[in-house]
Design a protein that fits this description.
With about 180 residues, this protein is mainly alpha-helical. The chain has helices at about 1-145, 150-180. The protein has one domain. The protein has two helices and no strands. Helix 1 (about 1-145) runs antiparallel to helix 2 (about 150-180). The protein is rod-shaped, with a radius of gyration of 64 Å.
Length: about 180
């Protein structure tokens, strides 16, 4: 029994010494291995967390920039459409101005032409009147010079009047032709 007790006492002593050794080994490992590795792991974890945070922030910035660019593109498209509309309106306005100016010039030309025609008509009437006066004077002179009988005088006057009527008729036909050409 004694040897059994010794065996048991040694066993207790071995167990206690091994327990102390184990605790001491744990303290040494904790101090030299677990804490440094834990710090490294914590630093890695913090580094990864910071990288993840930075990546999420960059993703948010990229998303915000994308939305901003999409808005700008939409604004640019609407501005381009507005510029196009303004150009169309401006072109239409210029077209109307050009047409109005052309009409005004045409009306001015017509008015100037009518004035010219009126002046030419008055000049023709003046020439006709001068011609009538000349014909009348010529007829009167012939009558006085020849002192012819009444029948001859009557024929000369009739011929002068017929010539005058013929000249008036020619002038009025020319005036009617010009009016038809204007229409």
């Amino acid at each position: 029994m004694e040897s059994e007790q010794e065996f048991q006492a040694i066993n207790y002593w071995i167990i206690i010494s091994q327990g102390v050794n184990f605790v001491l080994l744990l303290c040494i490992l904790n101090h030299f291995l677990f804490k440094p590795i834990g710090k490294i792991i914590e630093q890695r974890r913090n580094s990864l967390f910071e990288i993840k945070k930075a990546a999420e922030a960059d993703a948010e910035k990229a998303k915000a920039l994308k939305e901003e660019y999409e808005k700008r593109i939409a604004n640019i498209e609407s501005e381009a459409e507005e510029i196009r509309k303004q150009a169309v309106v401006k072109a239409e306005h210029q077209c109307k101005d050009i047409v109005a100016e052309a009409k005004a010039k045409a009306e001015q030309y017509i008015s100037d032409s009518e004035i010219t025609i009126l002046m030419e008509r008055q000049a023709a009437w003046a020439q006709l009147r001068d011609g009538v006066i000349q014909v009348t004077m010529d007829a009167t002179q012939k009558i006085v010079e020849e002192s012819l009988d009444e029948g001859l005088q009557h024929r000369i006057i009739t011929r002068s009047i017929n010539q005058l009527e013929h000249d008036i008729h020619d002038m009025s036909l020319g005036h009617k032709r010009r009016k038809k050409q204007k229409s």
